[in-house]
Specification:
Length: 146
């Protein structure tokens, strides 16, 4: 299994987007739509305090009839922030995501946010690895027969 550091390097867009905890949910969703992303890491000053996902916006804002323009991100974000380190494996991330029911994990190194991995990133990596293994096995089988 690959390490998170390798998965981050393989992402076409390695930008990391954050939002202040006082930002309105409307502005946060607008940023997510503009950047075509599903979550934002939430900052309170310099401290990482949570994550805001599309799921948070739908369930905690829209379904509870909170006005997105008047609701602050801090009021609906998921907290405390769950995160991983670059040395964590894909398997460890998948286990954490499954256990905590998460779809995005910030990646921290020495207290600094260096990326975010999504469930999609991890599944894509697993599919790629399985494809490589299948290809190698096919070459091995064809070589043995030939």
């Amino acid at each position: 299994m690959k390490k998170v550091a390798q998965i981050l390097k393989s992402k076409p867009d390695q930008a990391v987007y954050t939002v202040a905890s006082s930002t309105s949910v409307f502005d946060a969703v607008t940023l997510m739509a503009e950047k075509n992303i599903g979550a934002l890491v939430v900052l309170d000053g310099e401290a990482f305090v949570g994550i805001l996902s599309e799921r948070d916006c739908a369930r905690k804002s829209l379904l509870s009839e909170r006005a997105p323009r008047q609701t602050a991100v801090r009021d609906i974000m998921t907290s405390p922030l769950q995160y991983v380190h670059p040395s964590h494996s894909n398997e460890e991330c998948m286990a954490l995501m499954t256990d905590k029911r998460l779809r995005h994990l910030p990646v921290m190194e020495h207290g600094r946010l260096i990326g975010v991995v999504s469930i999609g990133d991890l599944v894509k990596d697993i599919i790629s690895e399985q494809g490589f293994i299948i290809e190698q096995l096919e070459h091995y089988i064809a070589g043995v027969r030939g």
